[in-house]
Amino acid sequence: MSPSIWTLEIESPVPAARLFKAVLDWHSLAPKLLPNIVASAVGVQGDGSVGSVRQLNFTSAMPFGYVKERLDFVDFDKFECKQSLIEGGDLGKKIESASTQFKFEQTSKGGCVCKVVTTYKPLPGVENKDEVAKGKEAVTGIIKGAEAFLLANPGVYA
């Protein structure tokens, strides 16, 4: 099966640099902001640079126990990063591979637009229509959760 792609754009009143840093540090924020979904999270390997791996462990609210993500690319000047799912989640059950690229573009109003491109390769015979909607909802939740935290804490990631 050939890879499939979905895209998403999310507007935010938070400046691009701050929201970008929060997404890179999501493994630290998620258990605090979404404790009903993310039980814990840790950096498994690396120092946050390219090649680093983080693991998010989920509560029973999720259909799987954890995911491990590898940071494949990061550009701190352009507020852009790409990560790949390397273990857990639906990997090996519904998908063969998945990666997500985030790009945060500053707007003239002082906020930003987060542009998301997810590329995934479904396993043969697996329909992922519902999974795309769930993926978009999850990414929107991450961005909006980070946004709410940053708006309430203007000095964080400044």
Detailed description of the structure:
The chain is of the alpha+beta class and 158 residues long. It has a domain at 4-34 and 74-152: START domain (Alpha-D-Glucose-1,6-Bisphosphate, Chain A, domain 4, 2-Layer Sandwich). It is built from three helices and seven strands. Helix 1 packs across helix 3 (129-152) and helix 2 (26-33) crosses helix 3 (129-152). The longest helix has 24 residues, at 129-152. It is globular. The N and C termini lie far apart (43 Å). The mean pLDDT is 94. One of its GO terms (biological process) is abscisic acid-activated signaling pathway.
Number of helices: 3
- End-to-end span in angstroms? 43 Å
Label the CATH architecture of the domain at 4-34 and 74-152.
Answer: 2-Layer Sandwich
Our estimate of the beta-strand percent is 35-45%
CA-based shape: globular
Averaging pLDDT over every residue, what do you get? 94
CATH homology superfamily of the domain at 4-34 and 74-152: START domain
The succession of helices and strands, N to C, reads EHHEEEEEEH
Derived from helix and strand composition plus strand pairing, the structural class reads alpha+beta
